[in-house]
Amino acid sequence: MKKAIIVLAAVVAVFNATAVNRLYLEDFTISPGETMQVALILENEELFTAFQTDLILPEGLSVVQEDDEFLLDLTSRNASDQAIISKLRDDGALRMVSFSIGVKPYKGNSGALVIVNLSAAEDFTAPATVVLKNTRIATTEGVEFLLEGDSCEVTMICDQPVKGDADGDGSVNIADVTYMIDYLLAGCQTSFHSQNADVNADGKVDIADVTTLIDYLLSGSWI
Question: Which residues of the chain have pLDDT under 50?
Answer without folding.
Answer: 1-18
